[in-house]
């Protein structure tokens, strides 16, 4: 039976998991990303991590796809890393091709947020034509599902919602620009606010203890306005909301939804938009990567009926 390996690479942790052809998951593992990314050759370190993981399972010979999820900008064909701020040594590298050669296995990759979204879409039962995912964690993740496929843009950089400019915001973003909304609407901003105003409070308890603080309410409202802007542009059937910040205890989800809906154009998308909460857990990124690997495999392999091999779409 074919197996698929999902590798979810984050700034803090890298997670790996196998899935068989019946979509049963096996062997979840989490390691510190710096354990391999901090080496002089991060690509070689990633190859060693994956190879060691496969050596520890009896399913290594069944793996037919490795799918990487990366929190950066990838080329439109999803073969080259264009910008990965926390591992700059991989920038402008054809990571999928190079890693495939090192492993002797087909390697594909996509933005990590698309794997979160693919997991959530697969839970809906019927795939919508148009959906948007917003996942607020350390940064502001954005996934675009248009016409039954993920939309990557002309150059691969679509969905950078966190980098739209916010009027009157003088903050310098790690991307190098000034005023990006992510500098004021992200887990990073919350962590900075905590250090300044609530040093003795656990990060997970911020909204429980300070949920009525004007600056945290303004944080939620900024997020709502930012999301509503994208809803008015794309007019999706579904908006999926998730990420670690939105899952925090006491987070004012009702206020966020109210803020989003208060800025939607009527009658549409105001009447037709369905807002759902993500099912994100610690394992979701690599589970979604496994499902994406299976999808890629089934779309690219010749069909048993003798039909021509389907061409992978480059939306």
Please write the CATH class name of the largest domain: Alpha Beta
Shape: globular
Radius of gyration: 20 Å
Beta content: 15-25%
Question: Which stretches are poorly predicted, pLDDT < 50 over at least 5 residues?
Answer: 303-315
Please tally the β strands and state the result: 12
What is the H level of CATH, i.e. the homologous superfamily of the largest domain? ATPase, nucleotide binding domain
> Under CATH, the topology of the largest domain is which?
Nucleotidyltransferase, domain 5
How would you explain this protein's 3D organization?
It is a single chain. With 315 residues, this protein is of the alpha/beta class. It folds into two domains: 3-111 and 282-300, Nucleotidyltransferase, domain 5 (2-Layer Sandwich), CATH 3.30.420; 124-277, ATPase, nucleotide binding domain (Nucleotidyltransferase, domain 5). It is built from nine helices and twelve strands. The protein has helices at 34-37, 42-55, 95-103, 112-122, 187-197, 206-210, 214-234, 253-262, 284-300, and strands spanning 3-9, 13-20, 25-32, 63-70, 73-74, 81-83, 107-111, 130-136, 140-146, 149-150, 238-242, 274-277. The strands form three sheets. It has a five-stranded mixed sheet. β2 and β3 form a beta hairpin. α2 (42-55) packs across α3 (95-103), α4 (112-122) packs across α9 and α7 crosses α8 (253-262). The protein is globular and about 55 Å long. Mean pLDDT is 92; it is low at 303-315.
């Amino acid at each position: 039976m074919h197996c698929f390996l999902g590798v979810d690479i984050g700034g803090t942790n890298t997670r790996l998991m196998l899935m068989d052809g019946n979509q049963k998951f096996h062997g979840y593992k989490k390691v510190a990303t710096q354990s391999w990314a901090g080496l002089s050759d991060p690509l070689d370190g990633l190859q060693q991590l994956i190879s060691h993981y496969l050596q520890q399972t009896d399913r290594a010979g069944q793996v037919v796809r490795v799918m990487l999820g990366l929190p950066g900008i990838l080329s439109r064909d999803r073969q080259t890393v264009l910008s990965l701020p926390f591992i700059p040594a991989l920038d402008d590298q054809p990571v999928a091709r190079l890693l495939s050669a090192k492993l002797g296995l087909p390697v594909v990759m996509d933005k990590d947020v698309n794997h979160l979204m693919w997991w959530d879409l697969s839970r809906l039962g019927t795939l919508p034509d148009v959906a948007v995912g917003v996942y607020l964690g350390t940064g502001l993740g954005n996934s675009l599902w248009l016409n039954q496929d993920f939309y990557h843009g002309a150059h691969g950089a679509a969905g950078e919602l966190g980098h739209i400019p916010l009027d009157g915001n003088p903050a310098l973003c790690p991307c190098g620009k000034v005023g990006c909304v992510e500098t004021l609407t992200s887990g990073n901003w919350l962590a900075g606010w905590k250090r300044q105003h609530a040093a003795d409070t656990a990060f997970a308890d911020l909204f429980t203890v300070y949920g009525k603080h004007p600056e945290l309410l303004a944080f939620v409202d900024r997020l709502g306005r930012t999301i509503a802007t994208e809803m008015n542009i794309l007019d999706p059937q579904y908006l999926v909301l998730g990420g670690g910040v939105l899952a925090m205890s006491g987070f004012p989800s009702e206020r966020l939804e109210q803020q989003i809906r208060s800025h939607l154009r009527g009658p549409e998308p105001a009447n037709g938009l369905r807002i759902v909460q993500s099912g994100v857990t610690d394992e979701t990124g690599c589970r979604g990567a496994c499902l994406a690997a299976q999808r890629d495999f089934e779309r690219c392999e010749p069909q048993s009926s003798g039909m021509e091999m389907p061409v992978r779409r480059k939306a």
